[in-house]
Amino acid sequence: MKAPKPNSSNSSPVHVTILGTGDAFCSGGRHQSGYLIDTGRKRFLLEAGPAILATLKTHRIHADSLDVIVISHLHGDHFAGLPFLFLEFMYERPLKHQLVIAGPPRLEQRTWVLMRTMYPGFDLAQIKRKLKFVTLRPGEIQRIAGARVSAIRSPHTNPDVSLSVKLDLGSAKVVFSGDTGWNEELLDFSAGANLMICECTYYESSQFQFHINYPELRRNRDRFNVGRMILTHIGREVIERAPDIDMEVAFDGMKLEI
Question: What's the CATH code of the domain at 190?
Answer without folding.
Answer: 3.60.15.10
